[in-house]
Each structure stands twice: as C-alpha cells, then as structure tokens.
Write a structure and sequence with these properties.
Blueprint: H1 2-26, H2 31-45, H3 50-53, H4 58-67, H5 72-91, H6 95-112, H7 123-139
Length: about 140
C-alpha cells in the first residue's frame, strides 16, 4: 500500500507538470522554460538528475529508466512528458532538443512495448488525459 501511494504521488506530480506546461503553451508562454520545468519534473519522478538523464542518447536513456525498475504506469506519463517537451522545444526553435526528446520517447516506448498512439500528445489527447486524471483524483482524494 505504501509503495502504491508513493507511485501515485509520483504519477500525480508528473501529471501536474504536464498540465502546467500545456496550459502555459496554450497561453503562448515561454515554451523553452515550460519544457525545462517539465523535464525537471520528469527527472524528479524517477529520482534521477534530470540534466544527466535527459542528456543521454535515446537508447541509454531508455536503458537507465528500465534498469531502475520504473513502473509501466509511470512510463506512460514519462512518454507524454517527453513528447510534450519535444513539442515545446520545437515551438521555442530548439530543434535539436526537440528531436532528442522525441527520440528518447521513441526508445523508451520501444523498450516498454508501448505503441505510439498510447502516448499521443495532441491537444485532444491532453484534454482527455486531464479529464481522466481529474476523475481519478476525485475518486482517490
């Protein structure tokens, strides 16, 4: 039970970062700062230094996450975080950073066998995720 609570706190914290970054994107706020804040939250969610973890080439990134025993449910939010960070970096004209985040997401998805459509990050998918997480929060306060 304690482990389950810990996992849910990590998921909820990462979801909150996804939501904040997306809301900032909708307001046309600084996309690079939004990406950096989201990436920081991603590192915290898996207890890694985000600067180190996110500097790894995609395959090494995915290996580190897998070796650490990261739960599949958390990986789903990591994939969405990476995809959104990629989108934000592209909006901020950091094309190299955007490409790296997308490649890291693809490598992680491949390691965990997650199909691309399961971590789509378009606005409709984000709205659905927000509704789903809000409902889960109401059921499990």
């Amino acid at each position: 039970m304690i482990e389950q609570d810990y996992l849910m706190r990590r998921i909820m914290a990462l979801f909150a970062a996804i939501r904040r970054s997306w809301e900032r994107e909708l307001k046309h706020d600084d996309p690079l700062d939004s990406a950096e804040q989201l990436e920081l939250a991603l590192g915290q969610a898996v207890d890694f230094d985000s600067g180190l973890l996110l500097s790894l080439v995609p395959e090494s990134f995915a290996s580190m996450v897998q070796v650490s025993g990261t739960d599949q449910r958390l990986v789903a939010f990591m994939l969405r975080s990476l995809a959104l960070a990629s989108r934000l970096r592209a909006e901020g004209n950091d094309n190299a950073g955007a490409a790296l985040r997308l490649q890291q997401a693809q490598a992680l998805a491949a390691f965990y066998g997650v199909p691309d459509e399961d971590w789509a990050i378009d606005d409709a998918a984000l709205e659905g995720l927000c509704r789903e997480m809000d409902e889960a929060g109401r059921r499990n306060p």
